Structures
1.
Amino acid sequence: MDERIFVRENVRRLLIKEYLMKEASVAGFGGLEIQRTPLGTRIVLEVERPGLIIGRRGAKIKELTEKLQRDFEVENPTIEVKESPNPYLNAQIMAEKLAAALERGWHFRRAGHSTLRRIMEAGAKGAQIIISGKLTGDRARTEKFMAGTIKYNGKPAELVKIGYATAKTKPGIIGVTVKIMPPDVKLPDEINILPPPAEEEEEQKEENKEVNENAQRAEGEGNKTDERGREKKEAS
């Protein structure tokens, strides 16, 4: 197949994602999944507040479907909206929240630490926040906030959820990147020690009991020997 078809398809997917991100920004955009099916195109949209994207009697989602079919030439699109189970563990939602806080005038350190604390309190294994741009002066710089465990390379790095957002402030554009290690992720270096079976546990208890009895018996014999020694000394 011609490479131009792949390029054209990826560009169209990117434009669709940018359009739906803009439309779902008020509802808390958390992710997008596009699937091609024999019946058409299935689009799964994850948001924080589904009611705002569905609209009254489904008017908003119907408008989005018609827009995708008319302007982006999507064949028979079907939009499914699902609620994010935990917004504080969704990297894209937290990136959007942090960018909105910066636009409202929050200091970047306060906003970064507050966002990091909320993510970790939600149960994440680790999180990293990167804020870059003109934070305090005319020169752009990068600040990082990190807690817990984050993988940067190898197979475990694919388990990290990443979200991007931008904040439009008076000094300029500030980029926000949020990386979250979900709590249910199983890392290769994690080892769980299982408790022994019931039979082995009973055997261990019996062995410990025998050891204690032998120790008590030996202690008793030692005491008797000491008493005999004292009696001999007194008799002499």
Note: The chain is about 45% helix and 25% strand.
2.
Amino acid sequence: MPDLTKPVLLTGASGALGRQLTRALAAEGFSLRLTDILPFPDKLPANARFVKADLADGVAILREAEGVSSILHFGGVSTDLTFENVLGPNIRGLYHIYEAARREGARVVFASSNHSIGFHERTEKLDHDCDMRPDSYYGLSKAYGELMGRMYFDKHGIESVFLRIGSCFPEPVDARMLSTWLSYADLCRLVSACIRAPKVDCSVIWGASANSRGFWGKDARAKIGWQPEDSADGFAGQLGGKVSDNLVTERYQGGIYCAAEYSRPSPSPKDIFGA
């Protein structure tokens, strides 16, 4: 059972999702420690402090994690970049997060991604125990992160929730997001539930709102008592036909990340749309 009187550490606090979480969790009364490699661009809530820190600096991460109940790990590279760009923050940085969690006995809420399973086709309905099929070095780092969390649970008993976030934006902007969209409000409620849940073990939750066109099915949301309240369905009329002309993008759940540097023969329209 987490001690909710202890602070919560949020990495990546200066990013779009980190800023949303800061506002929402501070309003709920959590004491927040915020870190990022970039300055925090907003006014700090009264119950939050910010320290600039690099995930590559293990000592700084250990210092900021001292005495926390949970680490919300939203820091690191968040887009499709080269292996060298991803390696430091998303691989070594994640190790520093889990070592801090081990020392403090803290729960980790890890911002994983749909790109860890991006090469599944859009016709598939996936449950949380599906095969990892990363679509990029970024997606590969998220798959690695889930495996690291599993190891720390099996070896050290460190609880984790892996949030396989779909597309978290103010509104969906294309047809793919009618399946993958996660509203800011649903994200904030999800993370709050992850912090508050009495027991999470090592769990996967699909980070998507209640979209009827969703690609994803069973997960561990009942364990933390969360259900999404928003939906992309209201945008279907304006976005249903908003697709790209790239057949690889349209075939796979990871979309454009799958198509980047794709060197196999491209699929035919029949592969995607049928006869």
Note: The chain has a mean pLDDT of 94.
3.
Amino acid sequence: MTNSTKIALVTGASRGLGKNTALALAKKGVDVIVTYRSSEAEAKNVVSAIEEIGGKAGALQLDTSNTKTFDDFAAQVKQSLQDKWQTEQFDFLVNNAGIGVYAPFAETTEEEFDRLMNIHVKGVFFLTQKLLPLIKDGGRIVNISSGLARFALPGYAAYGTMKGAIEVLSRYLAKELGHRQIAVNIVAPGAIATDFGGGVVRDNPGINSFLASQTALGRVGLPDDIGGAIAALLSEDNRWVNAQRIEVSGGMFL
């Protein structure tokens, strides 16, 4: 292995956008540590797929809603970097792990709100903080937001609120990590046909066709539309892009 190989850590990469991002990075020659919450077998399949492409990868268990586990997780990342790559640090952090809750504002429970907050805001805040010593100077962070932080669709008040918080946090991170030459950006997918949120976009024909009709390119997004965009943003050509919100939605609600 040459020292020029970049390493990314992608949270929630056993399926969906995280998996797609990990594979897109591997195709560009970036090695990947993938995290999974419960789907160990699926995460190992992603590792195998990356190895088939010719890259190196590892899988680590992580519940991003439980900050008490982050010290132990950081130690596992450090060990993995030493064992697999003989290095101390990685280059790219992609905070992708997330869940969707679809509930009208009037019916959203405090439990649902807290779960979203713990995963999407508190988890991202403190996981990134804990991993800072392991991120190389000159590295990059990508936080995943949503089109729902820009436009409002009924049923996503809590989720959209969390993503709005992540967009503000990303600008603060860019400012405060600039002295280490770490660029921080936001990728905001539009509606994507995955199992996210119970597969509502993928499996509900009425919702799917409505969203397609509100998208300039005439369809809802697919995971392949997003993973490649994240991998491209992390390429050396985009090193001067910083503190930006990049919506990858095909042009929704223009």
Note: The chain has one domain: 7-248.
